[in-house]
Write a structure and sequence with these properties.
By secondary structure, the chain is an alpha+beta fold. It is built from two helices and nine strands, in the order αβββββββββα. The protein has helices spanning 2-22, 151-170, and strands spanning 24-32, 38-47, 52-53, 61-72, 75-80, 92-93, 108-112, 117-123, 137-145. Strands 1-2-4-5-7-8-9 form a seven-stranded mixed barrel.
Length: 171
């Protein structure tokens, strides 16, 4: 009875960890303008469990950005702005592989710097400054990629899994 209870508890704990980890993925991101200068970089959390429709066009779907951090133009990013709060942003990533355009014309909005400047990043060919976009809207190339886990992280996970199996087998 004790062995079965231990196995059940270990199985539920492992299932819980897998369930919470699969819904969010951390990505490293960079943003460059047409002059190929890296204007920003950092990390973001994306809800990868399902896609949502953009508020401005229901045929456009993507993965919702939950948090956004890093630096932009040499200053610290403070916070991700709510959807449709600045520059018509939808805060969606459309491709998780980084092989095609990841932002749409609505883009991602955030605040940065000591004076909380609002910024909107959107895809190349979106709305350039002066053509319907706000003063601080910038278009360029946005690339987000999931970082590869470090070998030591994988080794620790494998060791923990093997230890758990041995513990359950001995009992």
């Amino acid at each position: 009875m004790k062995t079965s209870l231990l196995k059940l508890t270990c199985g539920l704990a492992l299932a819980g960890v897998c369930a919470t980890a699969s819904g969010q993925t951390t990505f490293n991101w960079t943003f460059t303008t047409t002059n190929d200068v890296v204007d920003g970089y950092g990390t973001m959390q994306v809800n990868t469990s399902s896609t949502v429709s953009s508020y401005y066009d229901s045929s456009v779907t993507g993965y919702q950005v939950i948090s956004f951090s890093g630096t932009f133009l040499g200053q610290t990013i403070d916070s991700l702005l709510s959807t449709n709060l600045y520059g018509g942003n939808d805060n969606l990533i459309h491709d998780l592989t980084g092989t095609v355009e990841q932002l749409d014309a609505a883009g991602i909005s955030f605040t940065y710097g000591l004076s909380n400047i609002s910024e909107n990043l959107f895809k190349t060919g979106g709305y350039p400054n002066g053509d319907g976009a706000l003063k601080n809207s910038i278009y360029g190339t946005f690339v987000a990629v999931a970082p590869a886990p470090e070998p030591t992280t994988l080794a620790l996970a494998a060791l923990g899994g093997a230890s758990l199996l041995l513990l359950c087998r001995r009992k």
